[in-house]
Design a protein that fits this description.
By secondary structure, the protein is an alpha/beta fold. The chain folds into 2 domains: 4-268, Queuine tRNA-ribosyltransferase-like (TIM Barrel); 275-375, no CATH class. It is 44% helix and 18% strand. It has helices at residues 45-51, 60-74, 78-82, 94-99, 126-136, 154-175, 195-207, 224-234, 252-260, 270-276, 308-312, 315-323, 327-354, 357-375; strands at residues 4-11, 14-21, 24-28, 30-32, 56-59, 88-91, 104-106, 111-114, 121-124, 140-142, 184-189, 212-215, 244-246, 265-267, 279-280, 287-288. It has an 8-stranded parallel β-sheet. It has a 3-stranded antiparallel β-sheet with strand order 1-2-3. Strand 1 and strand 2 (14-21) form a beta hairpin. Helix 9 (252-260) runs antiparallel to helix 14. The longest helix has 28 residues, at 327-354. The radius of gyration is 20 Å and the shape is globular.
Length: 376
């Protein structure tokens, strides 16, 4: 399987593009709803398509543990298992292993850890990660990496980065064996907050001639200014023809900031997790639908929103569902938040194509900052 990436327009460093993968086309900049266990929580595949999602994210680590690789493989891959016809990107499991710091042992071979499901010992190596992702038939496969914690000294970040680069080479060699791979492999740039390590990581991955690159090790607790400094130093060095994926970064203003710097792809649990907790995104700032101020509000979440939830349900009703812990509330909130994110990406793509993205980004970021300050 090969990847086609076409740049359709630029506005400064921002790029409007199109990815063609085995299961369809992804318009970029793109946001990928997170479907960790083979489901974007509370959503059917048809609802995701109706919202405009081109691609979703699944997770190798979690699917390997539950339901197990063999169960998904028996369906011919993750697409049929979860009834999703469009592209899927799968994370390698590296970040999840990173989050299990108290349960893992890292060596050059890979990682051994205690399963958070039943406590049994599990091994995950670059080769096993590739085998699982092959069985999932992912359109985009992520290299297995050693994610750098924050804060990390230069030496700590160097050791993790260099191990990640050796693992990336093993992933490339194992995934690209004689039989045709169902998807394409992206490398992950690591190196913490250290510009020289980020450059060394990028050079190592470019030498592997992979069709796309991700930026990992961000959104792990670092201040915004440090994250933007990493992007400012790294993204201009990535070859123009490669799609660029910023992993796990997901506030709307963070996405816009990264698009300004030339990033093409994003994922985050924020819209779906916030929805289940009653926090909803609007043009006038985020709201907590559980708050008493909404008890008698007969209006929609956002009068400017065109989603199914805003067209049919009031804030008062959604507050009632949230306070009663009704499943419908989580579903309706998720529809709204995903619509907000996917509509934001549509607006970003349109403004890049029209040549006015820098003004769009400035106004959007200022508006988000002002409403956040007003709510503080």
């Amino acid at each position: 399987m090969t990847l086609e990436f076409e740049l359709l327009a630029t506005a400064g460093a921002a790029r409007r593009g199109r990815l063609t993968l085995r299961h369809g086309v992804v318009e970029t900049p793109a946001f990928m709803p997170v479907g960790t266990y083979g489901t974007v929580k509370a959503m059917t595949a048809e609802e995701l398509e109706a919202l405009g999602a081109d691609i979703v994210l699944g997770n190798t680590f979690h699917l390997m543990l539950r339901p197990g690789t063999e169960v998904v493989a028996a369906h011919g891959g993750l697409h049929r298992f979860m009834h999703w016809r469009r592209p899927i990107l799968t994370d390698s499991g590296g970040f999840q292993v990173f989050s299990l710091a108290q349960l893992r042992r890292i060596s050059e071979e890979g990682v051994r850890f205690r399963s958070p499901v039943d406590g049994s010992e599990v091994q995950l190596t670059p080769e096993i990660s590739m085998d699982v992702q092959r069985a999932l038939c992912s359109d985009i496969v992520m290299a297995f990496d050693d994610c750098t914690a924050y804060p990390a000294t230069h030496e700590e970040a160097r050791i993790a980065m260099e191990r990640s680069m050796r693992w990336a080479a093993r992933c490339r060699d194992h995934y690209a064996r004689a039989d045709e791979a169902p998807g394409v492999l992206f490398g992950i740039v690591q190196g913490g907050m250290h510009a020289d390590l980020r450059r060394a990581s990028l050079d190592a991955l470019l030498a592997l001639e992979l069709p796309g690159l991700a930026i990992g090790g961000l959104a792990v607790g670092e201040p915004e200014e440090q994250r933007l400094a990493v992007l400012d130093g790294l993204v201009p060095q990535v070859p123009r023809e490669l799609p660029r994926y910023l992993m796990g970064v997901g506030r709307p203003e963070d996405i816009v900031q990264a698009v300004l710097r030339g990033v093409d792809m994003f994922d985050c649990v924020m819209p779906t997790r916030h929805a289940r907790n009653g926090r909803l995104f609007t043009a006038d700032g985020d709201i907590n639908i559980r708050n008493a101020v909404h008890q008698f509000d007969t209006g929609p979440i956002d009068p400017a929103c065109g989603c199914y939830t805003c067209a049919n349900y009031s804030r008062a009703y959604l507050r009632h569902l949230a306070r009663c812990n009704e499943i419908l509330g989580a579903r309706l909130n998720t529809i709204h938040n995903l619509h907000y994110y996917l509509d934001l990406m549509r607006r970003i793509r349109a403004s890049i194509a029209a040549g006015g993205f820098e003004a769009f980004a400035r106004d959007f970021i200022e508006a988000r900052r002002s409403v956040t300050a007003a709510m503080a």
